[in-house]
Every structure is written in structure tokens, then in C-alpha cells.
Specification:
181 residues, mainly alpha, Membrane-bound Lytic Murein Transglycosylase D, Chain A, two-stranded antiparallel sheet, 79% helix, 6% strand
Amino acid sequence: MKKTILLLLLIAIFSLKLSAQSSNAAVYREFDRVYEKMKIYNSNFAKQQQQINALEYKLKSLNSQISSLKSENQQLKTELSDLKENQKAMLKEVRQAVEAAVSDLAKNTETQINKIVEQQNKISTQNNATDDNYVNYKVQPGATLSAIAKAYKCSVSEIKKLNKLKTNKIFVGQKLKIPVK
């Protein structure tokens, strides 16, 4: 019986070894298959990691550019604000200069008109008086109906009526009748 048990044990061991060997081969094949998949996954992972690194580098670069553009934008806003302030100051100076020039021109024109009116009054009363009610006047550069009326101490409407004018427009060299009182 000992021989039979020993034989049975040997058969069992032998069949276990055979079973283990075939099972080990399947395990090795599975291990090789899994190992190959792991190599592919590792390769893909490495490629993706490189892409991620490249994208992170681009992101840092773009963030740096954005920061630079924000800074430049702020500088440009400051320069624009300064330019607007300078423009306002310059416009104020120009406006004041123009107003002063216009005021001076108006004074000079009024003075010249008064002189011309005095001269024409003298001449008109001596030579050109066509009627006791008006004198002849030749329009000078810069003269306006209101300035002429003021110089002759009459109204614009009286000058317009006497000369049959519909508007206040007069021209240099135009001859007007000016009412005298």
C-alpha cells in the first residue's frame, strides 16, 4: 500500500507540476501581454507629458505676453490722459488768444470806422450830401452794419430800410446811404 500511495502521490505531484507548468506558461503569456500594454501606455504617457509640458510653456509665455500688454495698455491710457489734458490746455490758450485777437480787431475796426465816418461826414456835408436825411458811405474792410450804425448813431434797421437790404450782409466797396439826424 505504501507503494500505491507513493505512486499516487507521485502521479498527483507530476500532474500538479504539469498543471503548474501549463498554468505558468499562461501566466507568462499574460504577463508578457500586460507588459507590452504597459510599454505602450508608458510611451503614450511620455508623449502626453511632453505635450502637457509644451502647453504649460506656451501658457507661461502667453501669460507673460498678457501681463506685458496690460502694462503697455496702462501706459498708453496714462499717455492718452496726459495728451487730453494737454489738448484741453492748448485749446484754452488758443481760445483766449483768438478772443483777444477778435477783441483787438473789433476795437481797431471800430476805431477805423469812426475815423472814416468822421471823414465821410465832413466830406458828405461839404460835397456828397444828396439830401438832408442821409449821407453816402462806402463799406470798408471789417465793417458791419451794427458798427456803422453805432458810429453814425442810428439803428441797423434804419440803414437796412433806407438801402432796401433784406439781410445784414454787406460787402467791401458797397455804397450805402446812412441816415443822419
